[in-house]
């Protein structure tokens, strides 16, 4: 009887071993490729988060009132500018009225007026309720039916100085950025306080939830020759692993009294 050709046991074993090696290499290749794609996606997500957070902070700081920046611990605080114009008459005989050049866009009531000279103190900007100082009582209304238009305050206020360029600013309530653990939070609706709190008691919103290490704030006040400069830096960490993304930004606060 004629013998049928076939594989020996040794050949079969060798084929199984080779297939196992090929399968192992293929699985490792797919696994490493997948892990690399996930790592790249995580880096891109952190980079996008860093851009969004730093741009949001920068936009708000560009509208900060000059010299209102103050830093305490891991908290940054400033007073936002809502509108600006030039005043025509400041003070008596009616100390609850300020004659101004018409606003380009009329601000909301409830905000406050600041008239600030170069010799004023920063702490004076956060002191309200005395009836004197650079910051007024809240705006009750804006009387556009008279010429020139007048800002009507809720109560009499005597400003303790004049602006060199007769500049008048309408500002909202202070805003703070504070690091709380691994969170960077934005605080608002807590009012004016002569002493800075870290953090203040107010409405908070999370800007970033994956910080590692401290947030850094560095402030260079403005002078007669240039505006103020604020530098901030923070580090974001990925949810898995030890990879981090460092963010460093410099903001020029161009408006001056």
Detail the topology: elements first, then pairings.
Blueprint: H1 9-62, E1 70-72, E2 75-78, E3 81-89, E4 97-100, E5 112-114, E6 139-143, E7 150-153, E8 167-171, E9 175-180, E10 183-188, E11 203-208, E12 216-220, E13 228-237, E14 244-253
Antiparallel strand pairs: 1-2, 2-9, 3-4, 3-8, 4-7, 5-8, 6-7, 9-10, 10-11, 12-13, 13-14
The total strand number stands at: 14
Ranges where pLDDT stays below 50 over 5 or more residues in a row are none
Write down the overall mean pLDDT. 84
- C-alpha Rg, in Å? 31 Å
Main structural class: alpha+beta
Helix content: 10-25%
Number of domains: 2
Q: What does the overall shape look like?
A: rod-shaped
Instruction: Give the topology string: H per helix, E per strand.
Output: HEEEEEEEEEEEEEE
Query: What count of helical segments does DSSP give?
Result: 1
Question: Beta fraction of the residues?
Answer: 25-35%
Strand order of the largest sheet: 5-8-3-4-7-6
**How would you characterize the largest beta sheet?**
6 strands, antiparallel
Query: Distance N terminus to C terminus?
Result: 112 Å
Plain-language structure description:
The protein has about 260 residues and is an alpha+beta fold. The chain folds into two domains: about 45-75 and about 175-255, no CATH class; about 80-170. About 20% of the residues lie in helices and about 30% in strands. It contains one helix and 14 strands, in the order H-E-E-E-E-E-E-E-E-E-E-E-E-E-E. It is rod-shaped and about 120 Å long. The model has no long low-confidence stretch (mean pLDDT about 85).
């Amino acid at each position: 009887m004629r013998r049928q050709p076939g594989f020996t046991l040794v050949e079969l074993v060798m084929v199984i071993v080779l297939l196992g090696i090929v399968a192992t290499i293929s699985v490792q290749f797919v696994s490493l490729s997948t892990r690399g794609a996930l790592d790249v996606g995580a880096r891109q997500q952190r980079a996008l988060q860093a851009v969004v957070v730093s741009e949001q902070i920068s936009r708000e700081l560009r509208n900060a009132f000059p010299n209102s920046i103050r830093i305490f611990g891991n908290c940054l605080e400033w007073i936002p500018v809502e509108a600006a114009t030039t005043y025509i008459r400041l003070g008596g005989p009616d100390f609850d009225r300020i004659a101004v050049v018409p606003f380009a866009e009329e601000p909301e009531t409830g905000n406050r007026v600041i008239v600030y000279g170069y010799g004023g103190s920063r702490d004076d900007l956060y002191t309200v309720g005395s009836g004197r100082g650079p910051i007024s009582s809240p705006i009750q209304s804006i009387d556009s039916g008279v010429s020139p238009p007048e800002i009507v305050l809720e109560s009499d206020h005597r400003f303790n100085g004049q602006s060199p360029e007769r500049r008048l600013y309408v500002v909202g309530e202070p805003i703070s950025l504070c690091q709380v653990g691994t969170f960077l939070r934005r605080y608002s609706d807590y009012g004016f306080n002569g002493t800075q709190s870290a953090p203040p008691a107010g409405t908070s919103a999370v800007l970033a939830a994956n910080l590692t290490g401290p947030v850094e704030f560095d402030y260079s006040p403005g002078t007669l020759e240039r505006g103020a400069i604020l530098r901030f830096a923070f580090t974001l960490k990925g949810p898995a692993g030890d990879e981090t993304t460092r963010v460093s930004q410099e903001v020029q606060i161009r408006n001056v009294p």
